[in-house]
Design a protein that fits this description.
109 residues, mainly alpha, two-stranded antiparallel ribbon, 53% helix, elongated
Length: 109
């Protein structure tokens, strides 16, 4: 995940997972008491099925690809800027819109 998202994206993802885990921890006992145990599990089965379908149809495979290849696949234009001792990979700001995060890239060593 950190190969695709900047630090803020990783932080957002981590925070979202903690919120969801807290919701499950609080919500499951309430659902179990209000409905049967099977019905409570059915809710999580439905959510897992929706997540699986989302992964199958909308998430792009990135195995074996480097960061630049992943960004190209996502439609983010990149260019290299070289200084005396360091090379930076910089994304093209013209490609950013509401669907893309602005990326800050650290030096490649």
């Amino acid at each position: 995940m950190s190969d695709i998202l900047p630090d803020v994206g990783v932080a957002f993802t981590s925070a979202f997972l903690w919120v969801v885990a807290t919701g499950v921890g609080i919500g499951f006992p309430a659902m179990k008491d209000a409905w049967s145990l099977v019905s409570a599990f059915d809710v999580f089965l439905a959510a897992s099925t929706v997540g699986l379908l989302f992964d199958i149809f909308f998430v792009t495979e990135t195995k074996g690809q480097n960061q630049q290849e992943i960004w190209k696949k996502m439609g983010i234009k990149i260019k290299e800027e070289k200084t005396e001792n360091e090379t930076y990979i910089v994304s093209d700001p013209e490609t950013f819109n509401d669907k893309h995060l602005k990326l800050t890239i650290s030096p490649i060593k």
